[in-house]
UniProtKB/TrEMBL annotation:
Compartment(s) of residence: Membrane
Chief site of localization: membrane
Family: Belongs to the autoinducer-2 exporter (AI-2E) (TC 2.A.86) family.
Full protein name: AI-2E family transporter
Leader sequence residues: none
Annotated source species: Paracoccus aerius
Upper taxonomic lineage: Bacteria, Pseudomonadati, Pseudomonadota, Alphaproteobacteria, Rhodobacterales
Amino acid sequence: MIPPLPPRSAKPLIQAQQADVLRVAAGLVIATIIVAALYFGQAVLIPLAIAFLISFALGPAVHWLVRRGLSRILAVALTMVLVLSVLGAVGTLVGIQMRSLSAELPTYQTTIRSKIEELGARMKGPGILEGAMQTVDTVQKEVAEVVGEGETNAVPPQRVQVVPEPVSPFETALMWLSPLLAPLATAGIVLVFVVLILLDQGDLRDRLLRLLGGNMFRSTDALEEASKRISKYLLMQLVVNVTYAIPMALGLWLIGVPGFILWGTLAAVMRFIPYVGPILSAVFPLSLAFAVDPGWNMVLMTAGLILVLELVSNNVIEPMLYGTSTGLSVLSLIAAATFWTAIWGPVGLVLSTPLTVCLLVVGRYIPQLSILETLLGSSPALSRHTRIYQRLIANDPDDAIDIAEDAIEETSVSGFYNDEGMEVLRQASIDYIINARAEHRLRIANGMDELLEAIRAEYSTEVPEGVAPHVACIPGKWEIDRQACEMLVHSLQLDGVPAATKAHGSTTSRYVASLELEGVQIVVLSFFSREPDAAVRNLTRRLRARWPQVKIVLGLWGVPLEELDKHGAEPLGADAVAASINEATRRIQLLLRKGEEKRTDAVQDPRAGATRNGTFDELSLDDQELREDLNDLAIRAADVFNVKTAAILLLGTNKELLLGANRELPGLDIDPRSRVMMLPTDTSLASLLLADAESLIVPDVERDPLLAENTVLRAWSARTLAAAPIRLVDGRVLGALCLIHDEVRDLEDKERELLETLAAEVVERLTGEEAPPVDEPKQPAVSATVGQPVPE
């Protein structure tokens, strides 16, 4: 039993709990005030919200005109005239068709009456509810008779007729015009707001930045992302609606439904309303087709047309054009539509998505409101390894296995072990003493065994009989140490390396003497302890004494990367240290191939060789202006990313040249022909990084066996390495723009995109041609051996 806390220790805990309660209560009060302000201030807030929404849509057009040399006033005027002209033209066509339809509707009464009579005739006859209806009618008649007998002597009611007072023509006109005055007034206010916002957009942005306050970078990013997301959503939604409306209008015209322009326009407008709009836009053409055609062909063809267009729009057009551009989850979209409809009515339903996008961005950039991003965002609330860990805690290994299988399909078995499996075990090691109960530990141990067994059964490996394992993995004292061994052994077996897991290890001489290591070349010691030095030294010392020919690799899975340097291989008596499954696999393979040559040829892409040689011939490498430009680009890259070194490398047939750098770099040779600095002939860097012609980010060079042994990187004190290809339009790679830092770091997706943009500037300066466009941020390639995330 845990003893109770003494009063002095309990008081701060109680105060912290009270502070949390007060914080939650204050948040609820503030949220209530905001909701009340939104509800009671809708007369002012709705026109403002609509105006800002329209200004987001028209802002890019105004900016385009301003960049073409027009003044802002003239650009706004031209944009508004164009928009009002388009709306007026569409409104005129719609009005003409509405007038024509209103004149033709009386002629459809006969068709509607005959169809209704036909449906009624078909529904006559005995049905499943006829007996129940007859029973209800009988009961009603009996009740009426009883009531009538009780009221035989009652005085019959007297009819009272109310004669309304005569209404003047002026009052009649007001009654007709009053419903139109409010929408017209709102439209006028919105129009004025839109013009003012477009004219004074910079001042409004400055005022918003002042209101947000705090970090100027964060506030600027928040406004930029909100504007980009909403503008993209509105533009893509407009394109989707138009691509739906035009085929619908043409299809209705071919079918013969009157007012096809009206119904196409109505469909384009109504689809701005989430969920309800498409249904409402389909009711009118279906009703008219029912009224026009005496038969049922027109109704069926119209329904088929709408069904096909909905399927194509929802499954092809929308995912292709904008997909999840808003970043909102489906559940949050539905909840937001319900909330804004309850607050602002139908207008709130139309504005629900853009307003919720603003809330999402606010939650992303303001830490105090991060709950909004969690509730509204489309990104997973929990990482994949956290989901697996939670399923194991909840004693649901089957669901954990399903999640693991999905991860393996996306990457590989080794990739799953490296990225998710080991993270689950790391989290379990952290919670082992602090949070977990005995029941939780048992669930995790059993569930992880079931998961690993299922993966081994699905991705089995055949070990030839009589072949002794080349690698033996010895776990430490915990179950998770053994499970890490099983992951590593399975990964090695999938790579064709015979490996086996030994029984739990100890530091005693008796245990070491009992080991059977005949034929074993490498022993891996698996430890999740954050302080394994004492146990490791004792075990490695006894292993060295008993098996001197065996290489020892330490798997220090639980030690953070920034502390891994304190646990060196030599002080602990080992040959290598690994922090992840991939790193351990690569180091083991290198130790097994210790006699082979490990250098990498400089040319990895044969089809680009002629281009590189031609570039060398065309470039005047002694051109001082070119060298200064490239050095300036390297200096800019180093300053922007705040790294120690930035270098521009060009690949030749059998050499790599350094064309630009932000500082003098050691460990280089001089090309005797061009007198340009080049990497030693037995060391390649750009070709090693860009074997796949993709950007590469290595947060910790020491965790990559090949890069860790690169003499140039050692001379440059490289700890973090990032490289973007210098790529031509046709995809051929000339070299790389490299960032090198002497501390462990990582780059975000936006930083990777920025690095590729700078590499494109290098291409333009070298070749004088336009570089290929930079793709949208995606998950960059990472070092093959980095398993642990770099702490922020």
